[in-house]
Amino acid sequence: MLGPVILAASRSDRLRRVVSAAPVTKPVVNRFIPGESVDQIVPIIVDATGKGLELTMDVVGEDITTPEQAAAARDAYLELIEHLKALDLGTRAEMSVKLSMFGQALEGGHELALSNVRPVVEAAAAIGTTVTLDAEDHTTLDSMFAIHEELRKDFPQTGCVIQAYLFRTEEDARRLAAAGSRVRVVKGAYKEPASVAYQEKPEIDKAYIRVLRILMEGDGYPMVGSHDPRIVEIAQELARRAGRKPGDFEFQMLYGIRTEEHVRLAREGHRMRVYTAYGTDWYGYFMRRLAEKPANLLFFLRSVLTKN
Q1: Please, which of 14, 60, 161, 251 could form a disulfide with 184 given CB 3.0 to 4.6 Å?
Q2: Average pLDDT over residues 76-83
Q3: Is the dihedral of CA 101, 103, 106, 111 positive or negative?
Q4: Which residues participate in catalysis according to the annotation?
Q5: Are 269 and 25 within 8 A, CB to CB?
Q6: C-alpha–C-alpha distance, residues 14 and 128, integer Å
């Protein structure tokens, strides 16, 4: 399987330099990451919302090694919120954050991440929108869920992400499928050991559907994070059986992937939110997109081979 190999490459400084220096890389990266600064991303937000789409914004960045870098990540989100305030989009443009960017892996990281993410959640609430905490590898999840629970005491609209390929996720879904909760379910993109996660696609797909059924039948607000056409169809059927209307759940897909499907779902009356990343530290995010789907890797290789 190529996915684990590509994920390992995402942490290689040598490959980072090679890929970053290749002339073809930047045009291909732009398919998934449409800007490096807030000023570049604002027109993307305006264009997408004008088409009836909603967004969740992600400032890319990984491998935080100092408290100063974590504070800079916090400040980058606060800058984004200032620009969103001027657009007055409310929840049509929310934010997704990785707690690793806020210092979770550093000494005293749990408290550091909480202290850095809280002002972002507060500022988001002040302009009428919210924040979703992304899931990372399984060793970080207890901390993430604890921070999520703490934030929800004052900001109950704060969302979180669960990953269907982990054995623990069905139990997490039952706990989270409560009134007022916002939960995005994804298949999972990190390399996890067989002791904690399903390894084969058929098993992962079945687990995803089980988790999605729990969320749809619960009292919370499910967010369906998938590009799989079959999953999209099943989500609609599960929602119908649970008595949910289109506004009672939403679909989420990545910027640059199945863009025509984004518009189609929005035109059919569904809430369709596009996960849109931007920033200069794009390498890790880009490599995960290649690892998640062979078609993304083929797209990149074709671009390399056909570039004059």
Answers
A1: 161
A2: 97
A3: negative
A4: 134, 184
A5: no
A6: 43
